[in-house]
Every structure is written in C-alpha cells, then in structure tokens.
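Board notes, transcribed. Complex of a protein with zinc ion.
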Amino acid sequence: MRGLEVLAGNPQAKHRLSAGRGLSHAYILSGPAGSGKHTLAGLLARALVCSGRGEAPCGACPDCRKAAAGVHPDVITIGEAGKDISVAMVRALRSDAYIRPNEAPRKVYLLPDAHTMNQSAQNALLKLLEEGPPYAAFLLLAENAGAILPTVRSRCETLTLSPVTEAEARAALAARFPDRPAQEIADAARRCEGLIGRGIALLEGGGRTREVQDQAARLAALLLEGPELTALEFCTGLEKWEREDLCALLEETVEQVRAGLGRPWEPRRAMALIGRLEEVRRSLDFHVGAGHVAGWLCAGSFSF
Ligand SMILES: [Zn+2]
C-alpha cells in the first residue's frame, strides 16, 4: 500500500501494510485517541476503493479523489458521534452491503466507534464478516481492541497504533504546520505525549468553538437541503460578521460537508458546495468584504 507516510511512527503497522500483500477485507484499528486511527482509516478507505493502476491508493483516480474529499458514495460511515452503534444499524448495514458498489470496485464501511456495539450488534456484524459479499470491506475503529468480541476479532486483521516518540511527533507536526515557529512545534510535540491528534489540537488552539460548529452545521444543511428562503436569510445575515469569524465558519462548514457522509446529501452537490465554499474562503484572504461573501453564497446557493 502507498502513502503510509501520512501516519507518523508505528513501524510495525506500516510494515504489515507495506507492499507485496493484498488488503484484507476487514481491519480493526485500535489505539488511544489521537494516535492516528482516523488517518490510517482514511488511507485504507482510499486504497480499498482506488480504481487506478499500480499500488493503491494512486491518489489520482476519481475514486481516490472522492474518498479524499469525503464524498465517495461507496465509503460509508456508520454511527453518530456520542451514540452507540445499535443492532438495528448493523442490520441496515447488512442489507446495504448486498447492494453492489455504486462506482468503486469495493464498498467500504467505516465504524469510527466500533467499541460501542453491544454483543448482538457485534454478532450481526460477524455474520456479515463471515458470509458477506466479497466486495464489502470493513474498518472498525476502537481505542481498545478488547472491546471487540474474539469471534469478530478473529475475522479481522488488527492493527494496533501506539504513541510515537517526541522526535517523530515534532517531525509530523512541523510537516503539518510549516509556518509555525520551531519552539511552538517543539512544545506541542512534548505536550502531546506521542499522540499527533492531540498535538494538532494544541497547535490549532483547541479547535473551533461550539458556536461556530453549530452555525456551520446549519449553513451546510441550509445550502444543501433548503428551504431556500431560510438559506437566503442566513447568508444575508453573514454581512455583519467579522472577517475572522467568517473564515472560521467557512472552513468549519467545508469540514462538516466533507464529514457529512452519513447524510442523504448527493455527493456531486456536496463536492460542488465544498468547491464554492473554498473559493469564497480564499477570497477573504484578498480583503473581500463580508457583504460580498454573503452575496456570493446567496447567488450560488441554489445552483449545486
Ligand atoms: Zn486511485
């Protein structure tokens, strides 16, 4: 598999995924929060749906690109943050798995909170792992693989991610934040205790506020689902926003649309919206006013 350098440290996991071996149809990615489970799951999902030539993920085929943008119809996230994955959800997943992939050679199910499945939910999944269609692939994320039943574990390849060394954390954070002073990077690398995700959160200032997240969710839903009048009102209201808040809102909205795979948003429209939001966000770097931004969003809102 290509692209493993996106994951810091973890030579053992990388070795098991490196060239010369095909990919399994089911993985358990375990390790503490911030250790790279989501990063690796993203890479595996791209590798599984890639339709390019040579070693996957090629990074250039439409499947790789859509998966990277978080809008591939055959990469399906199961579950919602803060809620357990129920047996009903696994049964729905099972019926869905028997519908052939839309575009990619495979259909990938990502379970970011696999540890929240109770025994019945896990048993329902086990049946699918044993008898499911050959194109279905599963990525189960859990802080502790012990939360997954041994019967399920025996059907999956388990990759355990560990905290990286301080030097590895420094290198990974410096690559991700090339403009930050070396001292800040070194501080974050020391404080994150080998968990890159935590280091990133430290350098990003603890992430965006809850309010920005809520507003972004509203904006995304309004632009993609309407109603038009409410969307127009919302966008017009942005005229009064400060530039910095507007940047944060647009960036957060892009992230949420990317993450919004579980919702019934049509991928092409979601991609178009991401493109437009990014364009509008960039315009803010060139001293375009909030009024213009509001106007552009209004004008483009209904053409996705
Ligand atoms: Zn590809």
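The chain has three domains: 4-160, 166-203, 210-300. The mean pLDDT is 89.
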